[in-house]
Amino acid sequence: MKLKLECYSVPDPFGHHHALLQKGDWLFVAISDGQHAGLGEASFSGDDTRCIARIRELFKKYIEGMVLSPDSLKEIGLVWADDQLDFLTATAVSGLDQALYDLLGKREGVPVWQLTMPNPVQDRVPVYVTINRALSDRTVADYLGVIEAARHQGFEAIKCAPFESVTVDGDQVAQSQSGRSVLHAIRAAYPDISVRIDFHQRFAADRFIQLLPELDSCLPCWYEEPCEMGPAYREIMNHTTVPIAGGERHHLDEDLMDLMDSGWVNVVMPDIIHVGGWTSLHKICEGAADYPAIEVSLHNPSGPVSTLASLHAAVISSTVTSIEIPFRVDAAVLPYQHLLEGGHFTVPQKPGWGITLDYIRGLA
Questions:
Q1: Which position among 15, 50, 101, 301 has the lowest Cβ density within 10 Å, counted as fewest Cβ atoms?
Q2: In what order do the strands lie in the sheet containing 37-41?
Q3: Residue 34, exposed/middle/buried by CB under 10 A (0-12, 13-18, 19+)?
Q4: What is the mean pLDDT of residues 189-215?
C-alpha cells in the first residue's frame, strides 16, 4: 500500500519567551505503512503553516509511492538535493527523513542506529541541559532554582543564555550587566558545574572582546555564537582560551563542513531538525573525523523525537562529545527518561527511535 502522511502540531510546553532564539510549537511528522508509523520532527522552521505545506508537497513528490528499503534510504539524500533547500525546506526535509528511518527501524525490529552499524561506538553519551526554556522570571533566583532542580536530576552540565537585554544598537557593555551578574551568581553558587553560555549572536565582536576578561573569570565550558558568524570569530579566539561553539542554524551539511574548514569554531553544533534529518546528520558526524581538533555537539532544544533521533546518531559516532536537551522539572513524562543515567545517555534498544505515535497523539 502507499505510504501515508500525518502532521501533528503540539504547543511547546515551555512557551515562546522573547529571550528564546528558536520559537514556535513542536511539529511532528508521521509516515505510516498501515502497520507501523515512523516519526520525525520539523519544529522551529519559523512558519509551521508553510512548513507543513512543504512537507506535504515533498511527500507527494518523492515518498508517497516509494518502496522503502535500506537501499532506497541510502539514496534519499541525493533525492533531497534536487530541491532548493532554504531553511524552511531543509526543516521539512529533516522531518520526513527522520520519519522514514524510524519507519524502517520499526519494520526491521531494530533501533535506527543498528541499521547503520552492528554495534555502538559509544555506550554513554554526555548530556547537558539547556535551562533557557525552563526559566520563568529570569531573575538570579530563578536561574539558581532551575539549576538546583537540574542537579537534583543528576545533571552537572548546563547551558544558559542570560543576555536577552543586549540589542544591536544599544550600549552592549551596559546592557550585558544583568547577564554577567547571573553568570557570577551561578559560578559562586555552583563552583563545579559545567556552564555553557549562549549569546544568540547579540554582540558586536569588539564589544564582546571587551567583556572577555570578566566572562573568562566565570570559567565557562564554551561561548556559543557571541556575534554574527564570520572571520571575527578568529579574532575572538585570539583573546580567550575558552572554546567557541556555533552552527545551530546552518541547514546544509555542506555549510557545516565549510564551517569546520573555516577554523571559526572549536565546537560545531548541527541540529537534526534543520540539517536534513538523519541522513545529513550522520554524514556530518562522519565527516567531522577529518577535523580532529573540532568537537561535534548536537544542538537540540526541541521535542522528544529530535532528542532520540540525535541520540541514535551519537552512539555510532566517535566525533560526538555531547547532546543538548531542554531541561524539564517533570522529567518523568519524557519518553527517553529511562535512557538517562548520571548526566549521560545510554544506548537505545527499542525499534526505530523508540517512541510511539500514541505518545505524540497524547501530546496533541
A1: 15
A2: 4-10, 26-32, 37-41
A3: exposed
A4: 98
Q: What is the mean pLDDT of residues 321-325?
A: 97
The answer to whether 92 and 47 are in contact (CB under 8 A) is no
Cell numbers at residue 56, please?
506535504
Give φ, ψ of 268 to 5 degrees. -100, 140
Q: DSSP characters for 280-297? A: HHHHHHHHGGG-TT-EEE
Q: Which CATH class is domain 115-354?
A: alpha beta
Pairing of strands 124-130, 320-326: parallel
Tell me the one-letter amino acid at 237.
M
Q: What is the largest CA-CA distance in the chain?
A: 63
Task: Pull the grid cell for residue 341.
Answer: 543515567
The amino acid at residue 317 is S
Name the grid cell of 121: 561506538
Those residues whose C-beta lies under 8 Å from the C-beta of residue 48, and which sit 6 or more positions away, are 9, 24, 25, 27
7-10, long-range: CB < 8 A, 24+ apart: 7/52, 7/55, 7/56, 8/360, 8/361, 8/363, 8/364, 9/48, 9/52, 9/364, 10/303, 10/360, 10/363, 10/364
pTM above threshold 0.85: yes
d(CA 106, CA 100): 10
Q: Please name the residue that has the C-alpha cell 526535509.
A: 93
- Of 296, 211, 217, give the one whose Cα is nearest residue 253: 296
What per-residue confidence (pLDDT) applies to 287? 93
* Domain 4-109 listed as CATH 2.70.70.10: no
Q: State how far the alpha carbon of 223 is from the alpha carbons of 27, 151, 279, in Å.
A: 29, 21, 28
Phi, then psi, of 344 in degrees rounded to 5: -130, 155
C-alpha span between 353 and 36 (Å, rounded): 12
Average pLDDT over residues 56-85: 80
The closest of 179, 85, 190, 107 to 148, measured between CA atoms, is 190
* Cα–Cα distance for residue pair 28/227, rounded to 1 Å: 31
Q: Which residues contact 57 (CB under 8 A, 6 or more apart)?
A: none
